Every structure is written in structure tokens, then in C-alpha cells.
UniProtKB/TrEMBL annotation:
<feature type="transmembrane region" description="Helical">
    <location>
        <begin position="141"/>
        <end position="163"/>
    </location>
</feature>
<keyword id="KW-0539">Nucleus</keyword>
<keyword id="KW-0472">Membrane</keyword>
<feature type="transmembrane region" description="Helical">
    <location>
        <begin position="200"/>
        <end position="225"/>
    </location>
</feature>
<feature type="compositionally biased region" description="Polar residues">
    <location>
        <begin position="43"/>
        <end position="60"/>
    </location>
</feature>
<dbReference type="GO" id="GO:0005637">
    <property type="term" value="C:nuclear inner membrane"/>
</dbReference>
<dbReference type="GO" id="GO:0006629">
    <property type="term" value="P:lipid metabolic process"/>
</dbReference>
<protein>
    <recommendedName>
        <fullName>Polyisoprenoid diphosphate/phosphate phosphohydrolase PLPP6</fullName>
        <ecNumber>3.6.1.68</ecNumber>
    </recommendedName>
</protein>
<feature type="domain" description="Phosphatidic acid phosphatase type 2/haloperoxidase">
    <location>
        <begin position="141"/>
        <end position="252"/>
    </location>
</feature>
<feature type="transmembrane region" description="Helical">
    <location>
        <begin position="237"/>
        <end position="256"/>
    </location>
</feature>
<feature type="compositionally biased region" description="Polar residues">
    <location>
        <begin position="18"/>
        <end position="35"/>
    </location>
</feature>
<feature type="region of interest" description="Disordered">
    <location>
        <begin position="1"/>
        <end position="60"/>
    </location>
</feature>
<dbReference type="InterPro" id="IPR000326">
    <property type="entry name" value="PAP2/HPO"/>
</dbReference>
<keyword id="KW-0256">Endoplasmic reticulum</keyword>
<keyword id="KW-0812">Transmembrane</keyword>
<comment type="similarity">
    <text>Belongs to the PA-phosphatase related phosphoesterase family.</text>
</comment>
<dbReference type="Pfam" id="PF01569">
    <property type="entry name" value="PAP2"/>
</dbReference>
Length: 266
């Protein structure tokens, strides 16, 4: 006959074994555990075969628009940096863009320089001098200067229409005699005209040294005034100077002599 102590030990073992078995509530909690569910799903070949076609496998690439470019090109970084520096420097140099700017008191002087580099005074003055001139050599130079000014307006208008860069945000749209493409900023037409006109005058006119220096200073002031008035960014003026300098080479290549003009007119 087993002792009460032995019976107690047996009942204790039975109780412990019952406590180790999972109750329905424990089984339900284990089934609702996300980690356990994922492990069972990954171990189940049926679930793997039945996965939808919308899920991406390890060998399937993401769409290009969803990918993050972790290694942008050096050219893209350089252009973005140049643009940021250009906008920052242009805004810092726009010291007389408005009357209440830091250098707003010299705004009338800058606007006078702006008018001196405008296409209308240049074309009107060239036509007047051509009409009053009675020298064949002077007429030849003035005629080609007139053609060069018209070519400059055409080329600048084409580039502005193609690039379509807006003028700086701090610009005040009170410019003298603007046209449709003048709402765009790149390149600066004043800078192209100043560079080409200065090179043209220095090449075809016999001028004293002080006058030559004044012409160069005038061209530089025209470009500087565009930035100080907030009309253009620095890169607009820099490219305008380069474009105007190169345009003169095209003018020389297309130079019209009186003989060739008479042949064209018949």
C-alpha cells in the first residue's frame, strides 16, 4: 500500500505534467504571435509556392523611379553646387535692386548704364551715323556694326527662348523697352552687346589709349549693373560676355564689303 507521501508525490508529478501541456488559450496566443506566424509561413513550402506575383523576389529589380540614387554623378553635383553659389552670390550683389536696398541711392546711375547698353539706342545711333556719313570706309564699318547688332538680338533671343531661365526673384521688372523674351534671364543681352560692341570699336576705330580704357570700363560696368540691379544672375552675365566675344568672330566671318553689298542689291 503506497504511503500518503508517495501518493502526494505522484499527484504532484501529474499536476506538473498537466501544467506543462499547452492549454487552448496558450495555443491560441502562440498562433496569434506575429513572429511565430512568420516563422511557420517561411517554413511552409505551400505558402512559398502560393505567394502572389506582386511580391518582389531577391532577383527582381525595383522600378527605376523607386530607387534612391546613392551615387549621383560628379557632373550633377558640380552643376548643383555652381547653381547654388550663383544664386547666393547674385542675391548678395543685388545691392540696388530696389530703392530701399543697401545701395539704392545709386540705382538711377545703374539704370543710366543699363540704357547705354540697350539695343535700341545702339541701333538708332548706328542708323543715324550711317545716314549722316559720307565716307565709304565709315559706311562699311557702320553697316557691319548694324548687322552685328541685329545678329546679336537674334542669337540672344533664340538662346533665351531655348533655356527659359527666369530672372532673379529679387528683380524689379521696370526695365527699359522690354520684349517677350526679356522675361528670361539667360544670357544677358546687355553683356553680349557690350562685349561684342567693345571688341568691334577697339578693332575698327583708331582711338587713343584713354578712350580704349574707357570703353573696356564701360563694358565691365554694363555687366556689373545687370547683377547690381537684380536683372541677371552672375552666370548670365559671364556667359553673355563670352557669347558676345565669340559673336564678333562670326561678324568678321560674315563681313559685308561695299562691293559685296552692291552685288547683293543687284
Amino acid at each position: 500500500m503506497p504511503s500518503p507521501k508517495a501518493r502526494g508525490n505522484g499527484s504532484r508529478h501529474e499536476f506538473m505534467s498537466l501544467s506543462r501541456t499547452n492549454s487552448p488559450q496558450q495555443l491560441q496566443r502562440q498562433g496569434s504571435d506575429p513572429t511565430s506566424a512568420r516563422m511557420r509561413a517561411s517554413e511552409s513550402p505551400t505558402r512559398q509556392r502560393g505567394s502572389g506575383s506582386g511580391s518582389l523576389t531577391s532577383g527582381q529589380a525595383l522600378p527605376e523611379e523607386d530607387c534612391i540614387r546613392l551615387n549621383p554623378s560628379f557632373v550633377g553635383i558640380a552643376l548643383s553646387s555652381l547653381l547654388a553659389v550663383d544664386l547666393w552670390l547674385s542675391k548678395r550683389l543685388g545691392v540696388c535692386a530696389w530703392e530701399d536696398s543697401s545701395w539704392g541711392s545709386i540705382r538711377p546711375l545703374m539704370k543710366l548704364i543699363e540704357v547705354s547698353g540697350h539695343g535700341i539706342p545702339w541701333i538708332a545711333g548706328t542708323v543715324y551715323c550711317l545716314w549722316k556719313s559720307d565716307s565709304a570706309a565709315a559706311q562699311e564699318v557702320l553697316l557691319n556694326l548694324l548687322l552685328a547688332l541685329l545678329l546679336d538680338i537674334l542669337l540672344v533671343g533664340i538662346v533665351k527662348a531655348l533655356v527659359r531661365r527666369r530672372r532673379p526673384a529679387h528683380n524689379r521688372m521696370d526695365m527699359f523697352a522690354t520684349f517677350s523674351v526679356d522675361r528670361y534671364s539667360f544670357p544677358s543681352g546687355h553683356a553680349t552687346r557690350a562685349a561684342m560692341g567693345a571688341r568691334f570699336l577697339l578693332t575698327h576705330l583708331v582711338l587713343a589709349a584713354p578712350v580704349r580704357v574707357l570703353i573696356l570700363l564701360w563694358a565691365a560696368m554694363v555687366g556689373l549693373s545687370r547683377v547690381m540691379l537684380g536683372r541677371h544672375n552672375v552666370t548670365d552675365v559671364a556667359f553673355g560676355f563670352l557669347m558676345g566675344y565669340m559673336q564678333y568672330g562670326l561678324v568678321e566671318a560674315l563681313w559685308v564689303s561695299p562691293a559685296s553689298l552692291r552685288g547683293i542689291l543687284g
